[in-house]
Design brief:
CATH topology of the largest domain: Phosphatase 2c, domain 1
Oligomer: single chain
Shape: elongated
Helix content: 40-55%
Distance between the termini: 64 Å
Order of helices and strands: HHEEEHHEEEEEEEHHHEH
Radius of gyration: 30 Å
Length: 318
């Protein structure tokens, strides 16, 4: 809290007046009872005004602290609710393994990732980035998560899921709001990944690391919520044993250093290529470390990673 301009002027005026009276009356204090009385009255008045101003500032400061504590409690509660929306454990035994993390920039995030098993035995995973930041983006993220999970568990295809989500977001948000979204359905029997990329950063796939082959998944279309009846393209790719797929939000690649230079996809791809034979948590750690070394401690945007690796042994067991 800061002292208002008016209060500053009042205090300066009173202090200047008191100093002027003391200066002018320095030789008259002993010779004039009236001057002595005037100076005493003036000093008492200034003291009273100062005490009143300090008391008022104290009350305002206490009210400001109470309001700050209330907002902090609300933010902490919202953060706990949001954390509960992310999967507590990631599925295993589907021929895929996962590692995932979301690091909010402002305590609460508009990014989202999910991995879930469907009743028909398929596996779906997704990553999203809601436009904007803070509470409003987090609320929209929670809404997206609830609708997506409902649609996926009804057995709808990736195209039906994305089309329904797109119409829903267009209805419940204004024109300035949208969500970039990547949604994939894994069929372990066919070893195929059916996906839609709705305006999200292109995931990076490193094929077998010994070959150093990189593939990008670009089939899809516009972000969700822009055009209500948009017709999304559907892509399909086969994941071979040892393939590593990295899905990420723009908080990773757009992190800037002191010279306002972005971390970029090339640096991200290079880290993935260097560490793709390592356990997924180590790949995740190296990516975050690389971004941290590039941009510093405090992220300016939410950072989310979802890393996937295909396994041969699990596929054969099926």
């Amino acid at each position: 809290m800061t002292i208002s301009r008016r209060d500053k002027l009042y205090l300066i005026g009173f202090l200047f007046g008191a100093a002027l009276l003391l200066f002018l009356g320095r030789n008259l204090l002993q010779s004039s009872v009236l001057v002595t009385y005037g100076l005493t009255f003036g000093g008492a008045t200034v003291g009273a005004v100062l005490l009143a101003a300090l008391y008022r500032l104290r009350l305002e400061l206490q009210a400001s602290q109470n309001e700050l504590a209330r907002k902090q409690a609300e933010l902490s509660f919202a953060l706990e609710v949001q954390r509960a929306l992310f999967p507590r454990t990631l599925p295993s035994g589907f021929g895929l393994e996962f590692a995932a993390v979301c690091i909010p920039a402002r305590g609460i995030s508009g990014d989202y990732y999910d991995v879930m098993e469907l009743p028909d035995g398929k596996l779906v995973f997704a990553i999203a980035d809601i436009s904007g930041k803070g509470i409003s983006a987090a609320i929209l993220m929670a809404n997206l998560q609830a609708v997506m999970r409902t649609l996926a568990h009804t057995g709808k295809s990736p195209k039906e899921v994305c089309s329904s989500l797109n119409r829903h977001l267009h209805q419940v948000t204004d024109a300035a709001k949208f969500a970039t979204f990547f949604y994939a359905e894994w069929d372990i029997a066919e070893r195929t990944l059916t996906y839609i990329n709705a305006g999200h950063h292109l995931p990076i796939i490193k094929g077998s690391c010994s070959e150093g082959v990189a593939k990008r998944l670009d089939k899809g279309g516009l972000p969700l919520g822009i055009i209500p009846n948009y017709d999304y393209d559907v892509g399909e790719v086969t994941l071979e044993p040892g393939d590593v797929m990295v899905l990420y939000s723009d908080g990773i690649t757009e992190a800037e250093n002191e010279d306002e230079e972005e971390f970029g996809e090339a640096r991200l791809s290079a880290i993935i290529g260097t560490y793709c034979n390592e356990p997924l948590p180590e790949i995740q750690r190296q990516i975050l470390l690389g971004v941290h070394n590039w941009a510093g401690n405090e992220p300016s945007d939410d950072m989310t990673l979802l890393i996937v690796r295909a396994h041969e042994a699990e596929m054969e067991e099926k």
